[in-house]
Amino acid sequence: MPGGMVPSMGPDVHIHETAIVEDGATIGTGTAIWHHAHVRSGASIGSDCVIGKNVYIDIGARVGCRVKIQNNVSVFAGVTLGDDVFVGPSAVFTNDLTPRAHNVDWRISPTLVEDGASIGANATVVCGHRIGRDSMVAAGSVVTRDVLANELVAGNPARTLGWVARCGHVVSRGPDRPTDFVCRQCVN
């Protein structure tokens, strides 16, 4: 870590020599932080995470345990990722609904990605929304509303395509929420 920085780290943490982890960041046991990643002071990353190349984790951002963040993702202040979350390459999280370069009154709108949710490559999550437990946001989608638990959404703006089990397999197509989320493929 350049410049004698002293983050709080558990054992067995791997930080690539080109990554920057600032003093005051918390990194859990078994986490790997790869090439050119930048973890800011006050950020928190849980155990057994994989932080890909060129990932930026901002001041105050929270990342749960066993999270995989692929290359070129920025997790800005106000974003919380639960446990077992997957974030695909170049996905985008915003954190201000009215951004202006000249604005001195920056207002962060929090975003919560609940446990087990997956966000596909190049998806954009507009701030102020909740991405439900075990839900799936398709690649390239633009999320402009809350996503329910186990909901599969796609498009711009993202809309319901169906419902998924914890494993990610589709259990139902269409807008009507099923009564259970048992994956027939996993049961057999």
Strand order of the largest sheet: 2-5-8-11-14-17-20-22-23-24
Main sheet makeup: 10 strands, mixed
The helix-and-strand class reads mainly beta
Radius of gyration: 17 Å
Q: How helix-rich are the residues, as a percent range?
A: under 10%
Overall form: globular
Number of extended strands: 24
Mean pLDDT over the full residue set: 92
User: H/E order of the elements?
Assistant: EEEEEEEEEEEEEEEEEEEEEEEEH
Number of H/I helices: 1
Proportion of strand residues: 25-35%
Question: Please, what is the oligomeric state?
Answer: single chain
Low-confidence stretches: 1-5
End-to-end separation in angstroms reads: 48 Å
Q: Any overview of this molecule?
A:
The structure is a single chain. The protein is mostly beta strands. 2% of the residues lie in helices and 31% in strands. It contains 1 helix and 24 strands. The strands form 4 sheets. A 10-stranded mixed sheet has the order 2-5-8-11-14-17-20-22-23-24, with no helix packed on it. It is globular.
